[in-house]
Design goal:
The protein is mainly α and 133 residues long. It has one domain. 89% of the residues lie in helices and 0% in strands. It is built from five helices and no strands. Helix 1 packs parallel to helix 4 and helix 1 (2-49) crosses helix 5. The protein starts with a helix and ends with a helix.
Length: 133
């Protein structure tokens, strides 16, 4: 009887932890989506889809969009390793504010412009390094 009770407590504890992990993952996926990642991925699917013939575009888009759930799950796992559940909740709350929505709406453009600036800077520094060879 004692062993049966111990097994029950163990199974109950594992079940509660699994539910908490699932809720944490769900909150993390929500965070990823509201940060503007959805638009970036949709844009990437569309851009890559430009290589697909018009006859196959619909099938391509359907299959490409179907890969997003796995991507969101993988990204959520990554974020869950770096942030606590409370931190993710705070980030979600921020991104639901007017300022957070504004940041999410501009994040893709800012990242693209930032990469271009970084590339220009890298070329400038490379020119400086070449002076000293």
């Amino acid at each position: 009887m004692k062993n049966l009770l111990l097994v029950f407590v163990l199974v109950f504890t594992i079940s509660i932890n699994a539910q908490e992990d699932a809720a944490f993952k769900s909150e993390t996926i929500e965070f990823i989506k509201i940060t503007g990642a959805t638009k970036a991925f949709d844009d990437a699917i569309d851009q890559i889809g430009n290589m697909v013939s018009q006859d196959n575009k619909e099938a391509y888009k359907k299959e490409a969009v179907a890969t997003l759930d796995e991507l969101y799950n993988d990204m959520a796992t990554l974020y869950m390793e770096e942030f606590t559940r409370e931190e993710i909740k705070a980030l979600v709350a921020f991104y639901k504010t007017d300022l957070g929505k504004k940041l999410a709406g501009k994040q893709v453009t800012l990242a693209q412009k930032g990469m271009m600036m970084g590339q220009s800077w890298g070329m400038k520094v490379q020119g400086i390094a070449q002076k000293y060879n």
